[in-house]
Structures
1.
Amino acid sequence: MKEILESRINLLRSQLADIEQRRDYVQAQLRLLEDIAQLLEKYPTLGEGLVGLFRQTTMPRRRRTRELVNALMDVLKTSPQGMELEAIRKALLERGIQVPGKNEQMQRARLTLIFRKNQDLFQRVRRGVYQLKV
């Protein structure tokens, strides 16, 4: 019985640590948003440039990646024979989906990495051209 109670105590302590870590993350995000709101009050024209920053900092990385993969699937549904990386990148940007990377070359490299990591969803037709896996 003592072992069961100790196990349960350890589990609850672990869950509490996870909750505290999440709370710290949410508090940091709240402070960031408050700072952004203050900046926007002072400099209203900054709003357009801060949209990308807001997206990157308020959404956990795993969720952003999942959102990007879903958007890639939607884009590639429109072209069953495949699309070139640059066309895919532009289609994502037109839909308001931010592609990670400092410049176009790094963004294409990131897309290639996503395609390679998700080979169950995407298929390489030829160099730089990808399609949904049938």
2.
Amino acid sequence: MSVVESLPSRPLEPQELLELNGAEALEMAVPVEDEGRVTGVLIATASWVKGLGFDADAGSWTVVEAVSLGEGVERVDALQTCEAEILRFRGDDPDDLTAADAPGTYEPTVDGGE
């Protein structure tokens, strides 16, 4: 069973993403969202990076982009490529995003810590 086939037919809860990130078959699984339910996720192994998007109309996950890691292809570049394709899949133009609304700008806070 592939990773995509193992995902529920709905967005992922944060705890489910943590479980996916701990899967032995993957080196990493990170959300595109900064918080809340996950509808875009980047997954990676030593040999590839894939961008997965949840299609609400179909009620299923799909591989939006896949990049093989090989000679001359750095993981960070593959992650950025897949993230941009997830954004396009959602109808957003990654070139129009500002730093303030781009994925990865969420800064979690610790309650009672300051």
3.
Amino acid sequence: MFSPLALAASTSLQELASKPQDYLGQEVEMEAYCVKNGRSGDVIGYECTSQDGVYVDADDIEPEAAKEKLAGDCAGGGCMATIQFVPHSYSTSSAIEPGKTVTVFNAEKAKVSF
């Protein structure tokens, strides 16, 4: 089960991206757009993307209603959601968004609410 807010402000997301190792195993909350299988279709599970270059690849999301909404009204990442997750690893990439380095966190599960 997830507890309340760990991070929410853009400045906190900037810190999250600059010191990702400090947040491994810690609960994080942020606003993001989520897409099943990722924007490019190359993610197993769900990819959630913030406007500040922080990505979350989650193997699964909960609750079931969020999965249904992402498959329906919000297909293709059309809805902003609040996600809570506990990252177990991360990587950085300059190939995902040309001209920008993004941080990609990996999590087993994310709780998504709209």
4.
Amino acid sequence: MRCKQFRSKFINIEPSQFDEVAFSHMDSCANCKKLYKSSLAVLNQLELAATPSFNPYFTEKVMGKLACKTQQNHSNSIRYALVVSVVVTFLIGGLTVYIAHSKNQPQQYDMLSLNDITKVPIAFEK
């Protein structure tokens, strides 16, 4: 058996299923023996490693945090829309007053007083 054949067999099957030909090649080849021993050492370490405990509520906590962030972003966008609408309203109102005032400039109207309104005399009958 050659090293290439040993490695393909090593990748495809478990070391407990090796035949005598594979073991005899491993005894004669230092590189394949080193590969076999290092792989077994890693597998043994993995078996000894403690499995981390899993929190059953982890998914719910993550989804709750995401919902809070989405809700905060949504309320911020509503706040920005409100500010923009107020600014646009004041801008349109100011332009309207400016245009009305500039068109009526030669007549000298005072838009905030009632002095320009003609008063109808009230006649009382006896």
